[in-house]
Specification:
The structure is a homodimer of 250-residue chains.
Chain A (H helix, E strand, L loop, with lengths): L6 E8 L1 H4 L7 H11 L2 E9 L3 H12 L4 E5 L10 H8 L4 E3 L1 H10 L7 H5 L2 E3 L3 E3 L8 E4 L2 E4 L3 H7 L14 E8 L2 H14 L4 E9 L2 E10 L2 H17 L3 E5 L1
Parallel strand pairs in A: 1-2, 1-3, 3-8
Antiparallel strand pairs in A: 4-5, 6-7, 7-8, 9-11, 9-12, 10-11
Chain lengths: 250, 250
């Protein structure tokens, strides 16, 4: 990689609904793609249940290992939303109404509509800073390097822009995908050679079945465009030799 | 819960393609739903990169805490497929051609087609037992309580049937979903009461936006149908009182 320190992150998906299989996690993909674009690399994801002890232990184990930790889920108004209270315990901060959050929500709702359930969404570690929510009022928050976002994918997505000036990333991580009409076993050997000659480029190989067609995606990832280009050329060379059909390069 | 010991599992998704956001993980959902149906509850998922040390450490940390550990990904023919070799190191087993796997693959391919890349898929811990693959030949495998499956969702799915007689589950985990046209904040308080009166039923509340409609899914999960029915009745009671529209119960 470059000499610049790599900025690394982990994501904690808090939610029984993902563990039960009822809900497919879309937030990892949204967060990872966006974080890559600002030079932050996601290196681990954990999906854990709505259990306070588990949340506290997982956050504590990851916040010292990663530059940033993102949690999703568990910040709504119901009994199973326990992220904010758990994070308060992680940082030994009081769990109570956050003045700024309370004021935002009070303005967001019509008079008389800011009921007890909604007020719960203003309760969080009192030392937290807010992550504004342009979709539905209730803010996320962060304490030190732990950022707490909601679980609903469209709302989470709408809140990322607000983090642009808070997170400090490195060089954006670039990628290129070469889709081929071939089998992995056909390209395994020359691809290993290319990987050995291009240690700074992460090369992944993924078989796919799309509309009945079998193929392989080769994915190159690196912060340095020149290195990706070089690697790309070396791959195109053996592909040509082997007479393999290119579906697309993206 | 029941007096019967709960059987718990964790899933390790091995793959840079999920961490980069390029691929959305579908295997957790497939595996969790199927495991629930045979009475095994998934309590943690980790997504980790294709790094040997990371795979070994993660498997070692989870295999002692859970009855079963499932890995997905990294058992193909290319350089980034390092799951089988990593698992060999976890169990101090020789990583070499597995006689039975070699023989299956040799028969699967046409004469002359069983090349070096494909032969790699017969390399695994020699003490492993196989998980047959009706879709594409290359078997998965397991050692003790660690089960290694492929990353391609359709292939993984086709291999689960072969595990039916190997895994020992408890009572199937039943669930019921009540979809309502309401806000979470509207039902937060009575739902908390129902949860407090029904400790054995896991009650989740999930807001959704579907085709422009806002709603809440209440999900009840328990091994005991009678307990789900009771809990369901108590929820329907407060829903009626509050005059909330039911979209569907499933």
């Amino acid at each position: 990689m470059t000499n610049k320190k790599e900025i690394i992150a982990s994501i904690i998906i808090i939610g029984n609904e993902v563990l039960s299989g009822r809900t497919k996690d879309l937030n990892t993909s949204t967060l990872s793609i966006w974080l890559n674009s600002i030079g932050i690399s996601v290196q681990e994801v954990r999906v854990i249940p709505d259990i306070e002890r588990k949340i506290i232990d997982t956050v504590n184990s990851l916040r010292t290992k990663f530059d940033y930790v993102f949690t999703t889920g568990g910040i709504g108004p119901t009994h199973d939303d326990i992220t904010a209270e758990s994070i308060s315990k992680v940082f030994n901060s009081k769990y109570d109404f956050h003045d700024e959050a309370f004021s935002i929500l009070e303005k967001y709702y019509e008079p008389g509509e800011f009921n007890e359930g909604r007020q719960k969404m203003a309760k969080m570690p009192t030392i937290a800073k807010l992550i504004l929510n342009p979709s539905s009022g209730a803010p996320g928050f962060y304490v030190e390097n732990v950022f707490c976002l909601p679980g609903v994918p469209s709302i989470l997505k709408s809140m990322l822009g607000g983090l642009n000036n808070v997170l400090v990333g490195g060089d954006p991580i670039l990628s290129r995908t070469i889709n081929l009409k071939t089998y992995e076993s056909e390209i395994a050997k020359p691809l290993t050679n290319v990987q050995n000659n291009n240690k700074d480029v992460e090369i992944g190989s993924y078989p796919f079945f799309r509309q009945g067609k079998l193929g392989v995606s080769i994915v190159l990832r690196c912060v340095d465009k020149v290195k990706i280009d070089n690697c790309n050329s070396q791959i195109l060379e053996f592909i040509k030799e082997k007479n393999i059909e290119i579906i697309e390069i993206d």
